[in-house]
């Protein structure tokens, strides 16, 4: 009995290690008729562990499951089980970038409902999981996560730095929605992404949701109060807001202080210099300085010190497809709260 308990504990620890170090989890669900095969394919793009976790209903009915490497007729893992069971394997360099297969079969007289979580390594998401402990998942209807999604997210997260991204728990990719392209759920510290198409808008939406995380979770109380005051002062005058820079409703920033922050943050990342130029123009041409004060507050979000002097990070988008390069530079923050845009600027590319 003691041996059996130790074996179960060992299996549980192995499953925990796999889940911790593998990087992307795909969620699948199906009803499998008697005598039918249920097959799912997925493509690891980095070496590392695989865990396929099954939840089968009705609980008392048994099924067999196999896991196949690419171009192999014999499974690398096999089990017969009921209720809840796992398959474990390892991706070696020769088997990455090719589709693996999971096959489930049963001969019961009634259909089985099967829920499948496949956790496996994806390039770039490996770094997100290991360095920031962020769980990444997708639902079947959203489509399998690709390397360019992981690459783009990793660039965005690195460009902001650990101080602003540490504590984000999960990024979930969900099927397209008529209501949302992205959401931040503060209670669970989860970013939900509903848009999978690569390019500038995908990148902009991801930064927008990261902005909600930074505003709600990471921003200090003093800057929060200052932002709330600036938003109240903005009122219904569009001159005090920046337009949504990635193709959303132009007045989206007027929705509330949270969307105002996220839209302004996105504009700051897209091109910091242009945001400040717009704010200065509105102050000088129409006598309305609020947008400039918002840009100055964004510069405070990225405040850091070198040799006792205040610096901030400025940003701009590069050009590319499907992955957009992000450029960042640390520049001196002037006493009036303006970044020093004097050339040459020491741009760093992510």
Q: Care to describe what's here?
A:
With 350 residues, the protein is of the alpha+beta class. It has three domains: 99 residues, Jelly Rolls (Sandwich), CATH 2.60.120; 97 residues, 2-Layer Sandwich (Zincin-like); 116 residues, no CATH class. It has nine helices and 16 strands. The strands form three sheets. An eight-stranded mixed sheet has the order 6-3-8-1-9-10-12-11, with helices on both faces. Strands 2-7-4-5 form a four-stranded antiparallel sheet, with no helix packed on it. α6 runs antiparallel to α9 and α7 crosses α8. It is elongated, with a radius of gyration of 24 Å.
Give a short synopsis of this structure:
The protein is an alpha+beta fold and 350 residues long.
Topology:
Blueprint: H1 2-21, E1 24-32, E2 37-42, E3 48-57, E4 62-68, E5 77-82, E6 84-91, E7 100-105, E8 112-120, H2 125-132, E9 135-139, H3 147-160, H4 162-165, E10 170-173, E11 182-185, E12 190-193, H5 200-218, H6 221-234, H7 257-270, H8 272-286, H9 290-301, E13 304-306, E14 309-317, E15 326-332, E16 348-349
Helix pairs in contact: 5-7, 6-9, 7-8, 8-9
Give helix % range: 25-40%
Strand portion:
25-35%
Low-confidence stretches: 1-20
Q: Overall 3D geometry? A: elongated
Radius of gyration: 24 Å
Give the count of structural domains: 3
* Overall mean pLDDT: 94
Give the neighbour order of strands across the main sheet.
6-3-8-1-9-10-12-11
Along the chain, the helix and strand elements come as HEEEEEEEEHEHHEEEHHHHHEEEE
What is the tally of helical segments? 9
- Overall SS class: alpha+beta
Largest sheet: 8 strands, mixed
How many E strands? Answer: 16
Query: Cα distance, first to last residue?
Result: 54 Å
């Amino acid at each position: 009995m003691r041996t059996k308990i130790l074996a179960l504990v060992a299996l549980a620890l192995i499953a925990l290690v796999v889940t911790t170090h593998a990087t992307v989890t795909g969620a699948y669900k199906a009803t499998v008729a008697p005598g039918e095969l249920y097959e799912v394919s997925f493509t690891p793009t980095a070496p590392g562990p695989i865990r396929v976790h099954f939840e089968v209903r009705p609980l008392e009915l048994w099924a067999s499951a196999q896991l196949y490497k690419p171009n192999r007729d014999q499974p690398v893992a096999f089990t017969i089980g009921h209720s809840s069971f796992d398959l474990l394997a390892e991706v070696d360099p020769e088997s990455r970038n090719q589709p693996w297969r999971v096959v489930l079969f049963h001969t019961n007289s009634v259909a089985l409902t099967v829920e499948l979580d496949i956790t496996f390594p994806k390039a770039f998401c490996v770094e997100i999981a290991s360095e920031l402990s962020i769980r990444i998942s997708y639902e079947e209807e959203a489509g399998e996560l690709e390397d360019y999604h992981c690459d783009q997210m990793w660039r965005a997260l690195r460009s902001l730095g650990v101080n602003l991204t540490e504590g984000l728990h999960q990024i979930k990719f969900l099927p397209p929605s008529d209501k949302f392209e992205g959401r931040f759920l503060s209670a669970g510290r989860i970013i939900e992404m509903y848009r999978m198409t690569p390019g500038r808008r995908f990148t902009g939406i991801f930064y927008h949701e990261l902005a909600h995380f930074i505003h709600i979770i990471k921003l200090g109380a003093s800057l929060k109060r200052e932002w709330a005051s600036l938003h109240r002062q903005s009122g219904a005058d569009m001159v005090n807001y920046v337009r949504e820079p990635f193709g959303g409703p132009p007045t989206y920033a007027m929705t509330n202080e949270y969307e105002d922050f996220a839209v302004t943050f996105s504009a700051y990342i897209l091109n910091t210099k242009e945001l400040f130029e717009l704010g200065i123009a509105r102050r000088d041409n129409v006598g309305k300085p609020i947008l400039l004060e918002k840009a100055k507050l964004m510069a405070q979000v990225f405040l850091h010190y070198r040799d006792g002097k205040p610096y901030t990070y400025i940003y701009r988008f590069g050009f590319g497809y499907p992955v957009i390069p992000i450029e960042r530079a640390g520049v001196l923050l002037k006493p009036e709260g303006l970044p020093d845009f004097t050339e040459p600027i020491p741009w760093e590319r992510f």
